[in-house]
Amino acid sequence: MKVFLMILAGLALLAWLGLRRRAAARQQQPARPAARKRIENTAYHAVSIKFSKDACAAAKGLTGRRFLANEAPRLPLPDCDAGQCQCHFTHHPDRRSGKDRRSPFGRGAIGGGTGRFDRERRGTPDRRRDADPDDF
After folding, report:
1. Considering the chain, what percentage of its residues have pLDDT values greater than 90?
2. Can you say how many angstroms the Cα of residue 85 is from the centroid of all Cα atoms in its chain?
3. Model-wide pTM > 0.70
4. Distance between terminal CA atoms of the chain?
């Protein structure tokens, strides 16, 4: 029994020393630079062109337009007349913006077009609000 307790105490001492050594090694490591925010690479990953106030007319003509990442034009733009192009891409997780509720099937097709969602137009409360969630 005494041998077992001695072995157990020895293992506890080794574990404590190992943890202490690991903590000391972490304190001596230089701080890592902050990781850049990573944009998920989705099917709708988009970019827009960000430019300075001295940009060419071609870049200014694309103001507010988003392109799918794999369909974006190369920089500098072909019509760029600036001596040194300062344009760069701004990344967006999705090409779409706003509360656009159009049907993916288009007007007149299956489902029809629902237009834009500006405000709630129902006059009565939602009939399903009081329903039991187990019923679905």
Report:
1. 13
2. 27
3. no
4. 62
